[in-house]
Amino acid sequence: MEQFDAIVIGAGAAGMFCAARAGQAGRRVLLVDNGKKPGRKILMSGGGRCNFTNLYIEPAAYLSQNPHFCKSALARYTQWDFIDLVNKYGIAWHEKTLGQLFCDDSAQQIVDMLVAECEKGGVTMRLRSEVLSVTRDEAGYLLTLNGEEVRATRLVIASGGLSMPGLGASPFGYKIAEQFGLKVLPTRAGLVPFTLHKPLLEQLSVISGVSVPSVITAEDGTVFRESLLFTHRGLSGPAVLQISSYWQPGEFVTINLVPDTDLHEVLNAQRAAHPNQSLKNTLALHLPKRLVECLMLLHPEQFPDVSLRQLNSRQQNGLVDTLQQWRVQPNGTEGYRTAEVTLGGVDTHALSSRTLEARDVPGLYFIGEVVDVTGWLGGYNFQWAWASAAACAQAL
Ligand code: FDA
Ligand 1: distance of its center to the CA of 34 in Å? Predict the structure, then answer.
């Protein structure tokens, strides 16, 4: 039977990085994954260019029942450390927006870098491998993989969350946590598009594909200023993905579709200068024309087909409210099928924030998305994967 210092389950972002660093520190590491290639989510990420970190990483950008938990790991392995590594491999990158760093060429470069780092650490990688059972005795952990048994003194669970089952996601990590008595907090899809109730969906179907800058607010007061996209299923775009992590079923979100304009001022000034200009053409200076036409069909009271001279103050107040405080009650989300992340997971109260080791189960570690730490859209989730992996690797 093969004996290792550490077995890492999951060759995703966190698992590969942890295995590589532990290997380079002299540990004998086995990295196991159920897929046929490593880093499948990395390859899909950032539209194939991997948004690998963010310039503005801060603990406030992470959701967790214990908001302090992520601080230690994030402070000890920062975005600058990962940028140094990317630079060392000569991977060209650029900032797209809001501090989000992407590869110039391809996410494959990040996977190749992680594989190279694992090779440098002498990591043994077993792909297409299912973990059939895990037991623990005084010598450590005994794992049954398909057809073979392996042992290690330490076991790292980096098997991710439930999002995108097509990319190998499984509840494995939560099951192991429960097997060893750790609490698992309820999970739900995060960074995910909203679906809409049928009548509204049908009304908005004509503007599928239209994107606008927006400010979106959840009932808990969380606000994001990013673009919003109307789709044939509902609402998407960065603003919606971000707020979805703060939304609970049944709640409303409030959307400002014209966030950078004082609409009353604009309408009053235009009325003084061009009283015969149509409301439709005036609004189309600030919003996509298809959206204006759709609103005129949906809310003929507030958006009458009249000239500015004919628009009365009740109608003007109504249309400004509709555009700047549009309250929408999503029907739900698209769920794990399209979600970028899984909220909830292994309760951080059961883990050390310095090493990610289970407090009551020596030698058992949980890193990356399987833990109840979920970042915003924009490279925050990969930075948590790198940072939690680095903190754990140091302790192996
Ligand atoms: P990850 O999911 O990466 O890896 C888990 C691994 O465990 C997988 O390889 C899986 O096959 C394996 N596994 C699962 N169950 C197993 C079992 N029973 N036995 C063996 N192996 C098992 N984040 C970001 O910061 N920037 C971005 O650009 C994006 N973009 C993005 C796009 C899309 C489409 C998705 C779905 C997600 C993103 N994300 C992202 C989120 C990011 O991908 C995610 O947070 C990290 O991949 C989490 O890393 P982990 O290593 O924890 O899990």
Answer: 13
Mean pLDDT of 216-233: 97
CB atoms within 10 A of CB 108: 15
At 166, is the pLDDT very low, low, confident or very high (cuts 50, 70, 90)? confident
For every residue of 183-237, DSSP letters joined together read -EEEEEEES-PEE--HHHHHHHGGGTT-EEEEEEEETTS-EEEEEEEE-SSEEES
Contact of 133 with 144, CB cutoff 8 Å: yes
CA angle 24, 25, 27 (to 5 degrees): 90
358: which DSSP letter? B
Q: Is the CB of 238 under 6 A from ligand 1?
A: no
What is the per-residue pLDDT across 226-244, written as a single tens digit (0 to 9) for each? 999 999 999 999 999 999 9
Q: Which atom of ligand 1 is nearest to the CA of 51?
A: 28
Q: Is the ipTM here above 0.85?
A: yes
13 Cβ closer than 6 Å to some ligand 1 atom: yes
Centre of ligand 1 to C-alpha 77, Å, is: 19
